[in-house]
Every structure is written in C-alpha cells, then in structure tokens.
C-alpha cells in the first residue's frame, strides 16, 4: 500500500452509506482479507486463524462452521474489534476497521456491528435490570429523543423478542436460558445494527426454543434488512438459515459456497466429514450409518503449497494445485456427491467393525497425545534432577509430547545453570581460602 493511500485510509472517520459492489452486483458489507490472529508470544504463540478470507454481502446470512477450537469465535470477535489481527485486514463497507482507527469511526463500528453471545448467562450483567441491559447502548450513543422515547423503544423491542414489558424490572437470574438469549438479542437489535455477529446463539438452548430464536433472527432480517455472521457447529441448522456457508478447520478457511452448493458438492474432505456427522432422525438408519472420518495426513503440502481459490459456481476451496484440479473435475461432472453411507442392515457386523477400525487407524489426529500439558511440576522435577529431566525430555520428544518436552528441557537447563553457579562459588571460596 502506498503512503498516500495509507494517509487517505487514516483520514476516514465516517462509514459510507453503501459498501463496494462486486462483479455480480451485490453490495459487500464486510470483507475479511488474509487475516491472521495470534495469541501469545515467542514459543508459546498460537496462530488461531491463518490467512482467512471471505466476503459477506448485505442482507444475507453467512454462516461459519467448524468443530470446537477451529477459530470461528476468534474471527467473530475480531470483526467486533475485540481480537486484534496479526496480519491482514477487515473492511466494513470498504473502510478498514481492524487495527488503530479514529475514535469517531470506532463508535460508528460499535453502533453498526453488534454481537449475540453464545452463553446468555455470562453475557448479561447480573446486577443490572433488563431495562438497563437493553437500554445501555441507547444511553451510550444517545439514540433517543427523551425518556419517553427510550422507554417506548425498549418496550417495543422486548415485545418483539417475545417478552413482556413487566420483565424489564427483573434481573437476568430470574429468567430461563431461552429468555436470557432473547434479552441478549433485544440488547443487540435495539441499536438497529446493520451487521449482527451471532456466536452460536442457540447451542445452549432446548430444541423447541432454538426454532423460536431462529425465527426471531429471520424476522429481524426480513423487517430490518439485518446481515448476519452466524457462527455454529451444527450443519443441520446452518443449511436452512444460511445463504452462504464457510467451513473452517484449525484456523484455515477450507471451503466457501452457497448453502445448497456446499451440501450438493462438499468437495473438501473435512466438509464431507462434517456433513456425514449430521444425525439422521431414523434410529435404524443412524445405527447403520458410516461416518466419514477426515484424515489431515491425506494432504501433502510439503512442496506444493495450498491456496484458497475459486473453482467456479462461486465455490471457493483450499488446496494445492493437484487437489484444485481434482476438485474442479468433480464439480464439472455435475453429479452431487454422497457424504452419508448407510450399510445394509443384514450385513455381517464383523465387516462393519473392521471398516470402523480401519477408519480409526487412518485418522491421524487420534494418535496425538492427550496429556501434553507442559505441567509446571515437570519443570520443578527437572530443575531438581537435571540429568533425569534431560532423559525425560528425550522420551517426550520421541513420543511427540512437545509441551512436556519443553518443560523438562527448560527445567533441566535451569538446574544445570544453578549447579554450575554453585560449583563456581565453591571454587571461588576454595581459592580465597587457599590465598
């Protein structure tokens, strides 16, 4: 980026009325471009998100799915400027909102982007009434003409989410989980945002309540033209509420496509594994279903490095050149892929068992150590017994317990340094005594 463009970017203190238009004529509300998010420093640094890129169009629901710890919430929190980006940038209506921005622009971003959190209990102030919780954004941005106008806005919103005005004088602990999630939704929607980051808003709710909250989200989208970044791990729900879906695995966005396109052509193996894990309502079919296990070792990225590219049909996928050509060939055939296999009910159970064992053996992540914690006790014991600490470090390294290896190594080095200092002091005193 040139110096003049940087200066121009810094001078932007207000958001434009509309975002940039892409080649298909859609308005791009949010752009995540080559974003890295890192936690910790030095040897303890963990890259939670790696080179993530996707666009969200105005008025759509873009869902981000993946297993726990894949980086979904990390990206959502980066959008609302809680998590800083180590690299890349996030653009809202074409204006960079990541990193250091002017205070006026920061307030506009807060006003226009709201978040509904996963845990409705932890995200509400237990010492505040519902009236204050819902009104806090109105107070901070003075989005009301007078007290009567504030009360009217709060009461209207609390009724829209299915609660009653008399609930405004109560405290969060007096409500059920579903009601608390409605309060969190009311707090976000009373600000009249353009973009709502919904971080697994229904995962903590009962099945019957989930449908009600999802209907509320769709109702607000239809009436207020709200755009959603919907974060979830349940693909069965995501399919029916999303316009487009992005799949993330260990910090990498591996596939992005329209909802039906993704379910008809789940090209990346990880996407297929997520779809195969969707429960089937029929217990007999579910019993005979064979899960597709994703094995990360199937990719050889040692020389041919992977890229995130579009293979047509607005379908983006992560892979090296060889894989991309294979994905393109499969997609161009136009035959929907089958991600779920149901075994014959009369098939011998031994065959099923052998296939399951074979799949488990191929699954590389099952061989990863479970107790590689790098406990402080390992450091202490290695410090006191440095020779044994070095032996333990070598054993841990051979077994791929890298945190334990580092703990033993550091403790042993510290122990040897301490012993060396003691020996030097002893020799120094001995020398002084002789002199």
Notes on the structure:
With 435 residues, the chain is α/β, with parallel strands linked by helices. The chain folds into two domains: 3-265, Rossmann fold; 376-434. The chain has helices at 3-11, 72-79, 103-112, 130-141, 147-160, 177-189, 207-224, 235-241, 259-264, 269-276, 283-287, 321-333, 349-362, 376-384, 386-398, 402-434; strands spanning 28-39, 46-57, 61-65, 87-92, 95-96, 113-116, 195-199, 227-232, 244-249, 252-258, 289-290, 307-310, 316-319, 341-342. The strands form three sheets. The protein has an eight-stranded mixed sheet, sandwiched between helices. A hairpin with a 5-residue loop joins strand 12 and strand 13. The longest helix is centred in the C-terminal third of the chain and has 33 residues, at 402-434. The radius of gyration is 27 Å and the shape is globular. Residues 1-10 and 350-368 have low confidence and may be disordered.
